[in-house]
Design brief:
The complex is a heterodimer. Chain A is an alpha+beta fold. Chain A has five helices and four strands. Chain A has two domains: about 1-35; about 35-105. Chain B has helices spanning about 1-20, 35-45, 90-105, 130-135, 155-160, 165-170, 185-200, 210-215, 245-255, 265-275, 345-360, and strands at about 60-65, 70-75, 85, 225, 240, 260, 260-265, 290, 295, 315-320, 320-325, 330-340. The chains are: A alpha+beta, B alpha+beta.
Chain lengths: ~110, ~375
Amino acid sequence: MSFVRRRPFGTLSLLLFIALLGWIWQERTALWAFPDIISGYTAKEYCSCRYVMNNPADDCYSYVKQWLPTSGFTDDAVSKRVTVSGMGRSNSAVWISDRQGCGLNP
Amino acid sequence: MSKGLSLCLMFMFSLAAHAENWPAEQWQTGPTTSGPALQALEAYAFPPRDDVTRKGIRTDALLVILDGQLIYERYAAPTTAETPHLTWSISKSLMATVFGVAYGEGLFRLQDPALKFYPALNKHPDLTLADLLHWASGLDWQEDYEYAPLKSSVVAMLYTRGHADMAAFTANHDAYAKPGQAFRYSSGDSNLLSAALKNIVGPARYPDYPWTALFDPLGIRHAVWETDAAGTFVASSYAYLTARDLARVGLLMARDGRWGDRQLLPKDWVAFNREPFSHVQANQDEAVPGGQWWLNRAVDGAPTPWPDAPADTFAALGHWGQAMYVIPGERLVIVRYGDDRDGSYRHNELLKLARQAFALKVQP
């Protein structure tokens, strides 16, 4: 108790830190997956926009734009494979067939 | 005399047969409309499009079928009449329609446990196919898209932890309520249905089943339905149809599951689609859930969700403003594709203006 009285802010910070660690542990799968969202979303929806809906590349590029930045965007028109990086992760979507359209990392 | 009578009867029967319009390879076109009511509809649906901020109403396609004839269509670039447009959650209602054909084949009953056809649901043995069709699985699912990406089950299902096998990802969720007791809109429920269909029709028929069961009989030639890596159709989100083709499904539903002289969906199946889920509470969602379709019905003391449309209106609805409205009593089907990134589009307003332009003037 004397430690708490001597270091009230230190104690509070320690408790908050422990709570944060607990939250990180509880949400570890969601947190680990989170950085994949932007590149996965962009690759998949661009592929479908371009090769399923057959819209022009420029339109598809602005269609998939989100508030999070992406980098390393490549669209290989021959293999119909779209690869996008963002938040340190990379994901690809590829066109499969007339009926099945595009798949994410199929 | 009797010969004359039978000729007369034959003439009357042929008149009755021809009185009903059905699309062949293309839709027949009906009389076009003009005037201030149409201008008001177009001003609402097609305001100057803002592709920089992406704010406001951004309609990609608007198409109206009256009495089985195409009476209006308009597109905004890059969407055209040939574009198989992403339908997002309209896919759910399409999967329910595919299910209806399997139901007509006698392959399952609504009260069958989903586990019977999808063994990965062994933690949820009491969950029935009817519960899934009502979005009432009781699974603790979070449907938010953009605003809670960390907690969103649907974002994880489509793009990260769940994308390889969306049904298995859903089946791993814990329950928050008993099955069949509470409505909670869930893309996961729809993908569990899609996985169950694999064993309902058999793995050999499954990859072609949406085409053989529904698209081919309706003359839909350019449907795309993406699958996950397990080969399960993404029934929650990823069917693509032209506006003209989607309207064929609308006409099928407007005519109680009949296509020409073939009863493709049993009438009691369509009735189930159009019956409100019995435990739904007022204002739980933007319309009243039926069997994977949305209803304009008054439930739990609340008014109908779309007061300017008749109570028999029902709809298939999807993210970013995708909609198909069916108004059987006014013989009207309306397809609206969009790319709305904010919430400014209103179903009721579109329905009101479209009925003023196309339906109400034919009423006595």
